[in-house]
Amino acid sequence: MRTIKIKINGEYKSFDILNDFLFHKVFGENGCQKELLYVINIFTEKNFKTLTYLPTDKKGEHDKHKASSSDVCVQISDEIIVNIESQKQIQEGFHKRSQFYSDRIQSLFLTMGDNHEKLPFTIMINIVNFNIKHPTFKKLKKYHNAFIPCEKEQRQYSLDDISETHFIELTKFRKDLKKGNIDLNNPKDRLMILLNEKSPEHLIKKVIKMDKFAYDVYKKAERVLQDRDGYLAYIKADMAERDKNAQIRYGKKEGIEIGKEENNLEVAKKLKNEGVSIEIIAKATGLSVSKIKEL
Fold first, then answer.
1. Mean pLDDT in consecutive groups of 10 residues from the start of the chain, 295 residues
2. Rounded alpha-carbon distances, angstroms, from residue 147 to 16, 111, 167, 198, 285
3. pLDDT the model gives residue 77
4. Are residue 146 and residue 240 in the same domain, yes or no?
5. Strands (E), the chain
C-alpha cells in the first residue's frame, strides 16, 4: 500500500518516487543536480560538488552488443562516472547485471588508442525492491552494502580506484523500519523513508518537516504531478511496470520464457501504442531504444 500522498485536483493521491518517470523528473534531468548530488553523497559518503548528466542509453558498436540502460548516469569529473538505477521487479543475477553495466560504462569512455590510465572510476548505485539472491547478501543484514575489488586472501587490501558498487535493498530497510531500528537523526535513514513507498505517512510527514532535502523533493514531486501531462506520464509509467509484472506472472504460470525477445517485442508494441515513452519501454522490456523505434 502506497502511503506517500499529494493533493491533485482536490484529492489526495498516493505516489512512488521510484516510479520511472517521477524518479527522472526529480533526480535525472538538468535542474535536479542539487537533489542528485545529495543522494550520491549520502550513499557514497563523499562530497562531490558538481555533476553533468550523460545519456542513459549506451549501445555498443555492433548490433549484437547488449545496450546498457539505466535511470541516471552522470559524470562527476574526467575520472569519475556515477550510474544510479532503481529496480522494482526482481531479477535473477542482478549483481552480475550491475557488474556488466559498470564494465560497459568504463569501456565506452576509453577510446581506441587511449592509455588505460584514463579509465574512469565507476560508482554504481542500485536501489532495488527485492532481496538480491546471492549467498553473500543473505549473510549481510544491513540494507545498504558497498563492494570494491580487493585482494582475495586478506580482503583488507583494495583497488579502490577502479570501481565501487552499492546495493540498497528496500526489503531489508522495511524490516529495520518494522523493528524500529531506524534513526531519524541519520540523513540516510531519512532519505530511505522518502524512497520507500511503504513508509508510514506519519514518518514521511516528520521527515519532510525536519529535513530540507526531503521537503524540496516532496514539493518538486508535487509540482510534477499537479501538472496534467506530468500526472498522465506518471500513470503511463506505472502501467508499463504493471504490464511487465503481469507478463512475468503469466509467463511463470504458463511456463513461458519471458526473456525471449519476441515476447518483449509484443509488450513493447502494446506500450508504444498506449503512448508510453520509449525510455520507459526500454527499461520495462530490456529492448534497446533503437529496436523500439523500429516497431
1. 59 79 91 95 96 70 39 89 87 85 79 66 93 92 94 85 94 95 95 91 90 92 87 82 60 52 74 76 77 84
2. 28, 27, 9, 27, 28
3. 87
4. no
5. 5-8, 11-14, 52-54, 57-58, 68-69, 72-77, 80-87, 121-128, 144-147, 163-169
3-state SS record for 47-90: CCCCCEEECCEECCCCCCCCCEECCEEEEEECCEEEEEEEECCC
Alpha-carbon separation of residue 245 from 22, 237, 267, 270 (angstroms): 19, 13, 11, 14
Cβ atoms of 74 and 54 within 8 Å: the answer is yes
**What pLDDT, on a 0 to 100 scale, did the predictor assign at position 251?**
54
Residues 116 and 246 in one domain: no
For residues 125 and 267, state if they share a domain.
no
pLDDT the model gives residue 65:
36
Same domain, 90 and 214: yes
Q: Give the total number of structural domains in the chain.
A: 2
**pLDDT at 209 (0 to 100):** 93
- Domain hosting 55: range is 5-226
For residues 146 and 136, the answer to whether their CB atoms sit within 8 Å is no
Q: Among 263, 267, 259, 269, which Cα is nearest to 293's?
A: 269
Q: How many CB atoms lie within 10 A of CB 87?
A: 18
Residues 68 and 166 both lie in one domain: yes
172 and 265 in a single domain? The answer is no
